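User: I'll paste a sequence; please echo it back and then give the predicted structure.

Assistant: Echoing your sequence first, then the prediction.
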Amino acid sequence: MRSEKPLDGKVALITGANRGIGLAIAYRLAALGVSLSLTARDGNRLEAVARELQSGTKVVATLADLTSPNDVASLVPKTERALGSIDILVNNAGVGSFAPIQDASEAEWDSMLDTNLKAVFLLTKAVAPGMIRRKTGHIVNIASLAGKNAFAGGAVYCASKWGLLGLTQCAAEDLRAYGIRVSAVCPGSVATEFSPHGKKDPSKMLQAEDVAHAVEAIVTQAPQSFISEISLRPTQKP
């Protein structure tokens, strides 16, 4: 029989965990028995989320700006001191702004590349040594179909997500020999606060829980194989 909490005793670090996709992933992993290290930039909201989740699992919450290498560097040791070794890293935090490339600013480029790509690089490097020693671990990067499909006004955001998919695939090759599985989830538009959705019908869009379900599938996969990438689309076009 399948355990009601098949990941009991595991520890996950989730970025951007105070709302939307990150919050849905936190609840899903908590239901699987995972202890949670949650980070986000909105401290009040993060603390409220941590209090809600503490009734069902161990939780540590850390206010962090992922564009700051010092903030990123503190996340892994703080998690390990509070909860133990990290078994699952979910790189979910992301920012986006959309404009024609001739109107996009260097500040927007720096913000998106630092948050959507550089922070993933730094956190992957931070958790990898411990996972290599233990010969096990999951790194799940929340990418986007924008990492596969170009669209007007998406130059900077798409660049960050195309880069994230390249980073994910190369990291998977570097780390698979150590039993570490690196995967990407690529959703289309999700009905969250992340960006305006125009005239799309939210009821037909992907929901945050759909992405959380994909993450669950990845981290509960049998050990002899791994799901390298999941593309998510709504059943009906919104």
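The mean pLDDT is 95. The radius of gyration is 17 Å.
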